Every structure is written in structure tokens, then in C-alpha cells.
Amino acid sequence: MARDHTSRPDRLARQALFNRATAAFRHAGTTIYFDLSPLREANWTGIPVVAAGLARAMLDTLPQHLRFFNGYDIIDPHAVADALRRNTGLFLDRDIDQGYAHAGKLPVFGETGHTIGFFPSVKPLRGAFDTEINVFHDLSTLTLPLMHIRGNVVHHTEAMLADLASNDLTVTVSEATRGDLLAYLGTDPARVVAAPNGVAWPGWYEAAAGNLGGPLGAEPYFLILGTREPRKNITKVFELLEQYPGHLETHRFVFAGKMGWLEEQHALPRALEPYVASGRILFPGFIDEPSKYALLRHAEATLYPSIYEGFGLPVIESLSVGTPCVASWSSAIPEVGGDVCEYFDPLDAADFHRAIGALLARRGPALGAACRERAQAFTWRATLGVILERVLVLEDWGKGQ
Amino acid sequence: MLRPWSDAPAFVLSCPGPLRRHHAALLPISQLTLPQCLLGGEAQLAAFAASAPAIAARAYFAPLPEIFGNPQSVARVRQMCGVAPNAARLVHLRFGGTRSARIMKEARNGLVLAENHAVPAISASNHPFADGLTVPALMRRVFACATLTARPASFGGKSLPVSELPSTMVGADLAYLDTIPDGGPESAAGLEIVSLAEFRSHAFSVGPVRAISPDLRAAIAAAARDRAPFVLLPWNLDHPGSVVPALVERTLHLQNPGQPAVRLLIMPFNYPGQTGLIRRLIRRLREELPNGSDHLPRVFLGRLARLDALPALRRLARVAWVDGNDPEHDWTARRLAACGFSPLLLAADDAPASPGIVCIAADEALTVNAETRFGLLSFRTHLPSLRALRQLLPLTRSLAVPAAARDVPPRLRTRPSRHGA
Q: Phi and psi (nearest 5°) for B143?
């Protein structure tokens, strides 16, 4: 079950909201159809993580009103629950492909109750439900297309307008992304709500990380988490290390994340190659969730130089385990990091160096506690609460239901 | 020049371009260095700043205005610009094409436009900005620095007020060149030229290209003997319907690599920081031309990184062929003329042209299909036929020699502008 660490008044208010929503759904015979297509990925980062967080929150809150679908097919909820437990879509994808997980057809014809389609990303179909809700994560394929491969740009931008037009409610993961929708596409502000992402870890991760000790022994290290793609601006870390190699004397640098696309895949400057050979710079590649937790938990700090983010999941993941973060002040990141992060100009290596120094000067238990406190506001139940509140307004289901 | 927004406490200017060249998200305009300053959005930005000193004094450059999306970053911009928190909103002016228009949230946004999409692309794409005539919803005004017969609308179809910028802007940043001596070899330091055979993607991306091209040296020596002139060929990399690759291929088909009639010096502009189009051109020439690789050392790519090097470029080439299908062709032709070149506009009969620009009939229809980040776009374009090219070559050669010796073939149609000479 996804835990809710927010304040007690917030939790009580949210529970009242969930009760109200449940009553309204029961009264209207509502079923939420959740598009699980992002969950079919084997390695969950970014959008699949958001989809999984929301799926878990809905399963906790509205299980009797929730069904999962893929394309035109209903999918066995046990197969989905299994994927959510395993944190991978590896087996779910196989079971869908081979037809094992199918549990009937999407009831576009013949459903008597009210249907809500919930799409965590690009909509594979439109107009199948009475009400359609769609999550927009960022507009980077529109505003920064050169940082993506063309297929990805076309996939997102081709669907963008049709998705927006068919949405009754568009959910963005931050105010910054909501602002982008308004600024570029003139979307009706009344139909767009910002519902920040959450962060949740299984309870045993903390015990496991504690038992292991630091994955790199006692040596301090900075963790740079994210897919290696241009938008993540990993080259700015390389530039920092070339200009200020002293950082490599005091800290190891761990770049964890799967290989992405474009030139970031081979952008390590020659001057830094000896540090890779000596183990001062590490590239462990994609890491699973327990390993990520352990790396986060024991890092001196995380570094997040991203040029543009719809939200910035690694920032909140870092804060949630009490590890401070040095992040760029771009786009949505400060919405997530609040006052506990140190921010820098994502194009300026000198400012990056300054921010690391400033953070190291603040380090200590108080900063760790402030990080955890900041992260407590970001739960998937809180995300779902924002969405359901707007659904109740949208459907004109007042408090009396 | 920007009367509606004269109360702005500071101006943020931006244009598309390679990101890696900039080492801060906001810098005073006086500290700005651009990969090239002869053509395109970058030259328009430089010319604009030079023509409006009062604005330039409080102007900054932002490589990525779209990243200022939250109160913290906006506050930082205002702080860096020395603007009080309660002062009027900043003004963000975007240069470059409509498809690349970007917004700085919390600012008043205007588009300085030299594009005229008189013949819009045919597109089945659902990309919001595929048609080239739509700009972001929060764009509030257009400032035109070229003739606009097709006016962009903000997303949703709302037409935007258009103010025309003074025509003198086209060469405003060139004025200082009159005050410096037309220097020797050292003044060529801002002129980067490599042959297509010497082109290396990474070196060109990161730039500047400092090494003197051996192929260029050889070509200059050969030109002194055979009198085949260098011809500038501006190439708008932000226009997927450009006929420049087709024109290069066709021109090379007509000449023996060892005995060229003209030497093409391609000047890419609106350079996005990726070299895919250039690499694709090289591959095309290698594959489509007989002995294609033999041509590559004799075709050049150039960019003018500093205006100081303009005299050196003028010594190398006097004539430019301008793609009349390019939505920026009007500004490009006028800019080249202001820089002291003789632009020949290769345009269809009905293409608008500025007074004094010599037009050459691009009389062969060509549909250019391009897979772009905006989806599949098709452009109905015009290319000079073989017959027109045969006539273009002697005119080019005649314009490449001093004015007194020029001999324009009478059969070659040069069309007076509709706007009058």
C-alpha cells in the first residue's frame, strides 16, 4: 500500500475527499479505465514510474471502480498487480503479447454506467469513454526537439492536439508544464490542473540499504541519476570536472541511468578517461529500484543539471531519503526542490561549482531532515487527490453525493 | 522601434542556435558571440541590437528562454537584469523562424520575423506548428524586418499586430566596418571555411574551425588561373524545403571537377547545432554524382563568425545565389547586398522581391518532401532549369569581375521588383 506521509489534517481532508469520490462513483456507476501501456516497459523510469505510482494509489483508494486496459483489451488486474509488485513491465508485456493477460474487450459498446478513461501519457485511443483524463509530463518534444530523436518528437507532437481536444481534464505534473500548455497551445486554463508527482519506496528498501552500508564503502560520492540524453545535461558535469578537477579528489562521481540517445551516449571528454580507469568516475548503467535507493541513501548529494524538466523525479527521490540535491533552476525543478536544494544556472559550470560548495557548507543532519520533510508533501495519494477533486467538479458531483 | 513596449525595463533577445557555445543562461548582449553573423536569425539579432542602441543598452541574450518557467528563475532574470521586482514586465524578443518561436513566460513576447511563408508547406502533420504560420499562444506582436505577405497568427488563429522595422536595420551592424582598415590576412580570422571533403561534424559543431583549409588554398590558386569565381550559396538549415542541396547537385552535374565554371561556397545559417543536413548533402553528392568524391574538395562550407572578416569574404566571392523558395530570401538578399555582394535571387515568377535585387527565373517546378521534426512536409518549390543555369553561369562570372567590365547577357530575364526600383 502506498503510504501517505503528509500532515494529519491533509490526510484527513484527503480521506474525506476519497470517501466523497467513492460515494459519487458508486452513485453514478462509474468505472475508471486505466491505460496501462507505459507499464509495459521493462525498465521503469520517468513516465512508467508516474503511471505505476498513480495505479497503486488508485488500487488503494478506488479498487472496486478501477479496471486496466491496453489498446482495445481489458487486462487481468492480477497481471498488473504483479508488475507493480515487481517494479517492471517485463512479464506484463510478455503476458499481454501472448494473450495470457486479456480479460475481455473494452466495453465501448454496452457499458451502462459512467466511464472515465485515465491515460498516464499519450493516448492510444480517444473518445472511448464518457470522460477522458490525460497526463502531460512535459512539452520538451515541442520546445526542445533537438534534444530528442525524431521518432520520439513525432510520436508526442502528432498526438498532442488531438489528445488535448479529446480531454475533459488535462493533468500536468507541475505548474511549469501547465504554464507551457497555456503559453504554447493556448489551452483553456479551467481544463488543466497541475498535480505534482509523488514518491514512494517499499519499506524494506531502507532496512536493506542500512544493512549494506554504503555501496561504495566509506568514500563520499555524488550521484547523478538519469537517462543519458542531451536534455539531462550530463556534459555540464563533465565540464565541471574538467574545470574543477578538485571535486574528483574529494568525491567519486556515479552516473547511474540507462543509455539514452544522441551525442550524450559518447560525450565523455578524453581528459576524464583516466578517472574512469581509476574508479573515481563510475557508470553503473541502469540500476534497479533497491540499488537506486541504496545509492541515493548513501550519497553525499545528488547532482541534477537538467536543462528542462516537466517535474524532476530524481530530485524528489533524493530528498525523500534525506539526501540533498544540487539542481538547476530550470523549468519545474524548483517547484519540486523548494528551499532545500541548491540551485545553479544549467549552462554555467562556475555557478554549478559554487552551488556544490554552498551545499557542502550546509550539510548535516538538519539538512537531511529538511529534505525528508520537503518530500513528505509529495505522495501519490496527494497526486490522486488533486485529480479526483477536479473530477468531482468536472462531473458536477457536489458534496452531497 | 518598439513603441508599444517602450516601458520595458530590460529586453531579453533570443534565437535558435547551438547550445554548447553559451556558458550562461543569460548574458549581456555585449558579451554575446555567435557562430555566424552574416545571415539568418543571428544576423537579424545583431542588426537589431545595432540599430537600436537605446534598447541594446538594456538587452540580454538568453540561449533558452523556455527554461525560465518558474518564479525562482524569473526572479533570477530580473535580478541579473538589475530590474526591481515591482518594475514593468520584461520584453522577450525572439528572432528566427516561426516554427522555432519560443516563449519566455512572465515576459511580454514578440517575434522579430524575416520569414515570409508566401507558399506554405503542404502537411498532413498534426504538429501544432507544422504550417510555419502559427506561433505560440502567448506571442503578442510581430516585428517584421522583411516583406510579409503571409502573416503568422498565434495558436488558435488570433492574428497578431505587425509593426515594420526600419529597412535600414538590415545593415545597421555593418556601419563600424567603415571605420576599420580593410586588413590583411589577420582580418580573415573570423572566416571559417572547409571543403566538403574536409568537413568534420564535431569540429564544425563545436567550432570555431581555426585551421586554414588546404583545399581552399588550392582552390584560390586554381581560381587565379581559370577565373572560375567563388559563389556564395546561403543555405537556411531551418527551412526543410530548401532547394540548395538540389541546386548544388545540379550545378556540379554540369561541370567537370577539374574545370569548374563556378566554385560553390555554401553558407549555412539558422544552424541548430546539429550537422545532419550537411552530412546528408555530402552523402547525396557522393552517391548521385559520377565520381562524386572528386567534387567534394572543390565545394566549400563557410561561416562568418566575425564581421571583421567580411572584407576577406568579399575578396573571395562577390556574387551570391539566393534560394527564392526560402521564406527568408528577401532579408537574405538585402543583407548580402548591404554587405557588398551581388545577390542573384533564384525565384519563381510570382515571388516577391525587394527593389534592386536581380531576379533569375527559377523555372522548373520541384516538390521537396522532407521528414522533419514537424512530421512530413512537402514544399512546392522552383529550381533553375538546366537552360536557366546555363544562362546564370555567364552572368555570375560577369558580376564576379569589377563593375566596369560586367556584361549581362540580354536574353537573361531580370525582373524589376513589383515594388518599383
A: -110, 115
Residue B332: all three cell numbers together: 537574405
State the Cα angle at B336 between B333 and B340, rounded to 5°: 135
Pairing of strands A325-328, A301-304: parallel
Break chain A down into helix, strand, coil percent, rounded to 5.
50, 15, 35
Among A150, A154, A161, A174, most B C-beta atoms within 10 A, so best to mutate, is A154
Please state, in angstroms and as integers, the Cα–Cα distance from residue B9 to each residue in A53, B78, B81, following that order.
45, 9, 8
Contact state of B125 with A158 under an 8 Å Cβ cutoff: yes
Q: Is B105 at the interface with chain A, CB within 8 A?
A: yes
pLDDT tens-digit series, residues A17-38: 999 999 999 999 999 999 999 9
- Host H or E run for residue A350: helix A349-362
Question: In this predicted model, what pLDDT tens digit does every residue of B6-31 receive, in sequence order?
Answer: 889 999 999 998 877 789 999 999 89
User: Minimal CA–CA distance to B23: which of B55, B69, B68, B62?
Assistant: B62
- Contacts of residue B20 in chain A, CB cutoff 8 Å? 235
Tell me, yes or no, if B78 comes closer than 8 A to chain A by beta carbon: no
Closest alpha carbon to B368 in B263, B303, B309, B284 = B284
Interhelix angle B40-51/B329-338, nearest 10 degrees? 60
Distance from CA of B25 to the nearest CA of A (A): 6
Query: Is B137 in contact with A176 (Cβ distance < 8 A)?
Result: no
Provide the residue type at A44 as one letter.
W
Q: List Cβ neighbours of B183 (8 Å cut-off, separation of 6 or more).
A: B308, B311
CA dihedral B387, B393, B395, B401 (to 10 degrees): -170
Nearest residue, CB atoms, A183 vs list B24, B137, B371: B137
For residue B287, the number of C-alpha atoms closer than 13 Å in the C-beta half-sphere is 7
> Looking at residue A231, what DSSP letter applies?
G
pLDDT (tens digit per residue) in A168-203: 999 999 999 999 999 999 999 999 999 999 999 988
Q: DSSP class of residue A49?
A: H
Residue range B129-136: average pLDDT? 93
Handedness of CA B263, B269, B275, B276 (dihedral sign): negative
What's the CA gap between A21 and A17, in Å, rounded?
Answer: 6
Report how far residue B167's alpha carbon sits from residue B329's, in angstroms, rounded to the nearest whole number: 15
Q: Are B23 and A347 in contact (CB under 8 A)?
A: yes
pLDDT above 50: residue B413: no
* A176 to B373: CB separation less than 8 angstroms, yes or no: no
Torsion sign, CA atoms A165, A167, A168, A171: negative
Report the C-alpha gap between B53 and A82 in whole angstroms: 66
Strands B91-95 and B122-123: unpaired
Spatial strand order of the sheet with B317-323 comes to: B191-195, B300-304, B263-269, B230-236, B317-323, B342-347, B358-361
Kind of pairing, strands B263-269 and B230-236? parallel
ipTM of the complex: 0.90
Tell me the residue type at B4.
Answer: P
- The Cα A347–Cα A330 span in angstroms is 10
CA–CA dist B281, B286 (Å, integer): 9
Cell numbers linked to A169 = 481534464
Average pLDDT, chain B: 87
Task: Dihedral sign for Cα A52, A55, A61, A63, please.
Answer: negative
Q: State whether residue A145 sits within 8 Å of chain B by CB.
A: yes
Q: Which residues contact B166 (CB under 8 A, 6 or more apart)?
A: B1, B51
